[in-house]
Write a structure and sequence with these properties.
about 230 residues; four-stranded antiparallel beta sheet; 1 helix; five-stranded antiparallel beta sheet; elongated
């Protein structure tokens, strides 16, 4: 064309034909890559080192490519396990990431294992009034299995103002709940208290008493403030 040997129309037709054939080559190469990818699906490679915990395919079954069919395998990495616990709202304030805990499993009676709080949802379930907490535990020995149940014991930090007294030490009335204590002169002092959890034969006192107070167990009804006690 530059030497004016061929016409412009012939040159344009030739260039268009060359581009069309290049497009056909590209399409064929894409088809080859697709077929190679489909051939590579014959070999399944797990994305991480683990154990096949479920197999939903057998020899001779037809497996279609693409779509959202059933998973062929399930692989679990059990070197480290997650434990999900629903913690009652009353105990949620003392939970922080990094807190240590222990748990027991039915298949290992009397054996306790260590776990660590890793995540806290910070949201209370409206129906159960509990908060989901995630713990992690080392499973190098392979003793824990996916989907297992366990009982978790949290090592909650102790409240320095929380004391536990016998339930029989309470003096109840229509207005308040009191505990009979002794001062330095062995005189009776009735203190109003605020109760926490009822533990059956004992009860938690969250306000009104200190660990150093001396209390009277099973006080008689005739006992009044100011009485001297031997």
């Amino acid at each position: 064309l530059q030497k004016q040997i061929v016409a412009q129309q012939l040159a344009d037709q030739t260039n268009a034909d060359a581009k069309a054939k290049e497009a056909v080559v590209d399409a064929n190469e894409a088809n080859v890559r697709q077929l190679e990818a489909m051939q590579s699906f014959k070999s399944l490679t797990a994305p991480f080192d683990g154990v096949v915990t479920a197999r939903n395919v057998e020899l001779g079954m037809l497996v279609n490519s693409g779509g959202s069919g059933q998973a062929l395998f399930e692989v679990s990495d059990l070197h480290r396990v997650r434990i999900y616990v629903q913690v009652p709202q009353s105990f949620s304030a003392g939970l922080v990431p990094g807190m240590k805990a222990t748990f027991e499993m039915p298949q290992y009676p009397g054996v306790q294992f260590d776990a660590t709080v890793s995540h806290i949802s910070k949201a209370i379930n409206a129906s159960s009034h509990s908060m989901q907490v995630e713990l992690q535990a080392d499973n190098t020995a392979g003793k824990f299995f996916g989907g297992s149940y366990c009982n978790v014991h949290f090592e909650m930090p102790a409240n320095p103002n929380l004391v536990t007294i016998p339930s029989t030490a309470l003096v109840t009335s229509n207005q308040s709940t009191q505990v009979a204590t002794l001062d330095g002169n062995n005189k009776v002092v009735l203190k109003n208290v605020q109760l926490g959890r009822d533990l059956g034969d004992s009860v938690e006192v969250i306000a009104g008493l200190s660990p150093s107070d001396r209390i009277i167990n099973n006080p008689p009804e005739t006992l009044i403030a100011g009485d001297t006690v031997r």
